[in-house]
Each structure stands twice: as structure tokens, then as C-alpha cells.
Amino acid sequence: xxxxxxxxxxxxxxxxxxxxxxxxxxxxxxxxxxxxxxxxxxxxxxxxxxxxxxxxxxxxxxxxxxxxxxxxxxxxxxxxxxxxxxxxxxxxxxxxxxxxxxxxxxxxxxxxxxxxxxxxxxxxxxxxxxxxxxxxxxxxxxxxxxxxxxxxxxxxxxxxxxxxxxxxxxxxxxxxxxxxxxxxxxxxxxxxxxxxxxxxxxxxxxxxxxxxxxxxxxxxxxxxxxxxxxxxxxxxxxxxxxxxxxxxxxxxxxxxxxxxxxxxxxxxxxxxxxxxxxxxxxxxxxxxxxxxxxxxxxxxxxxxxxxxxxxxxxxxxxxxxxxxxxxxxxxxxxxxxxxxxxxxxxxxxxxxxxxxxxxxxxxxxxxxx
Length: 369
Fold this sequence. Notes:
alpha/beta, globular, single chain, 12 helices, 15 strands, six-stranded parallel beta sheet, seven-stranded mixed beta sheet, Rossmann fold
């Protein structure tokens, strides 16, 4: 194994929108554990919400879109993981039991140990209290501790780390648009919200062969809307310049309809839902996110709709995302707009939320910058 430092730096959320750089000793590793040298960690779309929270998730080691190389591991870990020292990987945030029915299907997001909705302390990177050993349990760090149940995806040695950090957000888009609501050949797809996951949904739908992809956003999202046209969207609607229903009428014509809708926004009050339900076809699939609003069952019955919502992504979705990334079919480097140091984690998270830094799409923390 390569030599390692005596101490490792990690950024810790200590309170609402407060970050502190701490240093912890390199941990003693068990035979089924390892360490990853972090090359880059993307800032997730949900990270600003965690960072703002003042009544929970503090202290917490944030960061879960993690890319790096194996720096150390025990012999048992080597046999289980089937990776070699120096090999590069993307790791998912879930730390599952690996034996329940969901884990055996590659659906680690539903494992009772890792389920975000399954308890007060889901075991997943980005939400773990670092005050207990092994301390190095978040992606905004130089190294991260790997327990036996780490979820790996191997990546090519020559894949830029910045692009590899897109595996999780694009994986979300693949899951939500294609695996959850069947965007695919012949389908007309509406995606609302051009953030990381929305752009990931565009890529997933295009990769799956959708016939027509429409992305809707706001004036503040114009750069993302423009980029979406390079990533596979056929049309982009700025709803502050052209109301959503008017834009859909222009694109679909008087008789056309939507086969798939993926709303990646919070849709407070269900205003988006009220509009797109007017243009969905019979048998359409909806991916909704209006948690403070009931879904109208009468319309679901009338139009024979299938409704789902988001719960992370499966192992297979990330595997598909990595295939899209490594194909180099799309100018994904244009999504990676800003790179920050460990000292700038606070700014990186705020930039992801559209604050203090203009034009941010996908922000990345490079611990060696």
C-alpha cells in the first residue's frame, strides 16, 4: 500500500450554514475496511437544504458525490470488493445491510439501515455525525473511511474526476425519468426544473430513445436551459417569458399530449401539476414532487395515469449514468461549472443553491486545490 498521512482534513457542518475544517488521525483499519483518497466530491442538489437546517444534521460530515482511488484496505475487504490499490471508483452514499430483500435487488436506497425516511439516523454518507470514530465519514475531505458495506462503481483510470462526480445526479435523472416512469422510444417527455437532476433526466430520456424532450425552467435558469439543448432536449421553455401551458401548446399543437412528466422541483402548492395534468395523454406516467398537495385521484382514474415520486436511485441507474458519461456523447464538462477548495465548502454549497456565485450548475469540491 502507498504511504498515508498521519492526519486528514475534513469539512464539518457545525450549525446552520456554518462549516469548520477539522483534522482527524488516520484510523486503524479492520480487515474488512479501507480508505479512499478523494479526488473530487460534487455538491448535491439536496445539500443546501441539509446545510440550512438549524434543528438537525449538526454536526454532520456532508458530501456524498464521491470520486477517488483506493488508498488502503484490509485483506478481507480486498476479497469482498474485488478492487485493487490505486483503482478508481465512484461510491454511492448508502451504507446498507447487504442482506435484506432490497439490497439483494441493488435497491440500497430502500434498505432499512440506509433509508432516508426509515428512521432518525439513516446510514449514508453526507448525513453521518463525525464526532465518533472513524470520523472521516463525509465527501468534503481528503480521504474517507470505507466500511465493509460500501457501494462501489469502478471507473476508467482516464475519466476526469469532475465528470465522474456527475454519476450520482445523472443516475438520479436516469432513475426518475426512465426506470421510474418509462421515458423511452416514441415518448414525449416534459421535465420541469433544470438543476443537476433535471439535466440528468434529460440525458436519461435521450439515452433511452425518447422521441421529444421538453425542459421547463425560469429566467434564473437560462444558462441551464440553453445547455439542455446540447444535452438532448428538443425544446426549452422559460416559464417567466412564456407560461408553461402556452409553451406546451406551441410545441405540441392542439391535439398533442405528454406521455411522461418528471417534475424535479418542490412544486409548492401543486401549481405545476395543475398545468401539466391538462396536457397529459391517457396512460401517461407522472413523477411528482408536490409533497404538500394531494394527487387528484379522479383525474388519475379518468386518464389512467401512473404516479410515482423520487427516492434516490438504484445501483443500476448509476451504472447507466456512468455508461452515458464515459460514452462522451454529450458535452458534460459544461455542467461542471465551478471547482472549490476544502476551505470554500460553504461557498460551494451556497453556489449550488444559486447564491453568491453566478452561473453555477454543478459545483465540485477538490480537496487538493
